[in-house]
Every structure is written in structure tokens, then in C-alpha cells.
Amino acid sequence: MAKVTMFTAARTLQGEEVRAQLTGEMAELYHDLDMGFQPVNFVAPWLPLPANRRRDVAQKRLRGLYLGIIEARRARELEKGKLGQAGDGEDEEPDMLWTLMRSVYKDGAPMEDGDTASLMVALLLGGQHSSSAAGTWMLLELTARVELQEELFEEQRRLGGEEGGGFRPLELADVDKMPLMMGAVKETLRVHSSINSIMRRVKNPIPVPGTGYVIPPGRTMLASTSVMHMSEEYYARPEVWDPKRWEGKVEEDREEDMVDYGYGTVNKGTRSPYLPFGAGRHRCIGESFAYLNLCTIMATLVREFRFLPTNEKWVVPPTDYSSMFAMATRPAIVKWERR
Ligand code: HEM
């Protein structure tokens, strides 16, 4: 799953050139980066722990990959006599890397290649780890419910089934036409929020209502979205993974909740008890892409395969909380057969 989500995010968000250079080994390097998100690292990220050493090696390798691509692009532009010209790279497929390569800092100085490469690593990490964890959890929950896989398969047949048994390729608009699949993605993000702790540094004193306490500036506050996701106040039988609880539920955007932080109008999301993508100023920028990516990947898998427990004692594995991303404990193994 890590490979699938990384390759799709790389191709769609970062372009063909980046995708061509990513191998399965790179997915393992991203896993090493994930494992560097230990809670202790928010206090002392420099600790000489084995996980931190692996994290730093992975960061260097991935950064090197992007630096290599930047260098190759510069060489191509030099050959065309366009390096540093206003239109450099404009005859190539536009992507995030070209955009960053042409960006300038606030003082007008060109962005440094090392910073560009590090940002590209971070962006792919942002798009990859949480989707990979969510896809894995969904596959595991579906393995425990083979009959639901058949319902999802039927939904796909109604949506794009062709005579003779095949399917037409998925299109962008199809995502809105697979409510059960969307419910399964939403439910997975509720029960298995990959980012379940959100932290903020206090900038101004915060009085705690109804008490004499004031939280002073400089402290770090942590909110766990999973507490709300597992609350009976908001969800009936919250511990049960049930995609059908989302049937017919549409969350309307209220005007007073809409805000523009400088990249288009978004819902602050602070009123909702459903917060897998966070809320407020730092709410996830990749939410729509994540739904699109996960629905497409899972629809493709359901169309082609059936997932089965490996033996009678098989259960959905417990959560591995050793990093800040709540992933399934490895090895999480399922059996598959082609339809
Ligand atoms: C299932 C998939 C995903 C989940 C569950 C998820 C979750 C989150 C959460 C909870 C936050 C807020 C963190 C905070 O408030 O401190 C966040 C922020 C962010 N996410 Fe995602 N995300 C997902 C996919 C993506 C994708 C696909 C991208 C890239 C296209 C992305 C890019 C980002 C970025 C750049 C931020 C930081 C925003 C900021 O600090 O202003 N995420 N994500």
C-alpha cells in the first residue's frame, strides 16, 4: 500500500520525472521518515536513536534524488539556452518542482536548491504516509468483512461495469458516484485517524474557561481528534467500523465557518466532530486529493481482487503507536485472489 500511494501521489502531484525515479526502495525510505515522527522528537529531534539515524539517512537519499532531477532540468535548460530566462521550463509539463525552482524568497533571492529538494520530500511525505496508513487499514477492515467487498464490487459494476464483465476506466466525477466506497474511506479515517494528535505552540496567554488557570505562551498544547471520533456523544457504537453510518449524511458548509487563509476559501472545520484532516489555519491542504486517491485505489483493488484472512484466527492487527502516525502493526498480511 505504501508503494501504491507513494507512486500515485508522486505521479499526480509531482510529475512524470519524479515518478520515473521512485522505486519500491524509496517507499521503504519514506517509511523510515515516518518512523522518525516519534513523540520524543518534538522535544529532542537530535537524539541518537536508531530510528532517527534511519530517518536522517532516508532524508539525505530522498533529498539527493530531487537535487539530481533539479540538476538535470538545469542542464536541459542550459542546452536550450534558456537557463535563468523568464520562460525556463515552460515547454515542459508543469509541476510542483518547476514552480518551486522558479520561486523567490520574500527578499527576491531565488529559492535555494537544497530548500526546494527538502520541500519536495516533505510534500510527498504529507501526501503519502497518511494515505498509505488509511489504505492499509481499509484493506484490513475489508478483509474482515468479505461480504462488504461484494457490495463494493456491485457498486463498481453499477458505476462502470461493461458487458462481458470488464469495467470502463474511472473518471474524476466517479468519486461522487460511489457512496459506499466514500463511506468506507470516511469510516476508516474516523476509526483509524492516522494523525490523531494535533499540536500547537501557545503564542498568547489562554485562560481556561471556568477555572483560574491560564496557559502561558511557549507551552505546547495537544488535541487528540481520535477522542472525538470515538465518542458516543457523536457516534453510535463508535468502536464499530461501519461504512454505512455515513449513508445519506451530507455536511453543509455554513457561511460563518468559511475562511480564506490565502489559498482559496475552505471550511475551518472547527465545529465538526469529524476531524481526520485537522481544523483551522493548518487544516490539511490535501483533503480532496486524499479522498480522490483513496477512492480510486480502493475501487481499482475491489474491481480486480478479493481479499481474504490468511487463517481462521486472523484479526485486524492492533495499532502501532510508536510513531506519530497510527499505522497497523507489521506484518499486516492478507490473502488475495483475482476475481
Ligand atoms: C488520508 C490522507 C490525509 C490525512 C488523514 C491528512 C491529515 C492531515 C492533518 C490532520 C493535518 C493537520 C495537522 C495539524 O493541524 O497540525 C494535515 C496537514 C497537512 N497535510 Fe494532510 N492529510 C492527508 C493527505 C494529505 C495529502 C494528500 C497532502 C498533499 C497533497 C497533504 C498535505 C498536508 C500539508 C502540506 C499539511 C500542512 C498544512 C499546514 O500546516 O498549513 N495531506 N494533514
TrEMBL record:
Heme binds at residue 284. GO terms for molecular function: heme binding; iron ion binding; monooxygenase activity; oxidoreductase activity, acting on paired donors, with incorporation or reduction of molecular oxygen. Its cofactor is heme. InterPro entries: Cyt_P450, Cyt_P450_CS, Cyt_P450_E_grp-IV, Cyt_P450_sf, Cytochrome_P450_monoxygenase. It comes from the Eukaryota. Keywords: Heme, Iron, Metal-binding, Monooxygenase, Oxidoreductase. Signal peptide: none annotated. Pfam families: p450 (PF00067). Belongs to the cytochrome P450 family. This is Cytochrome P450.
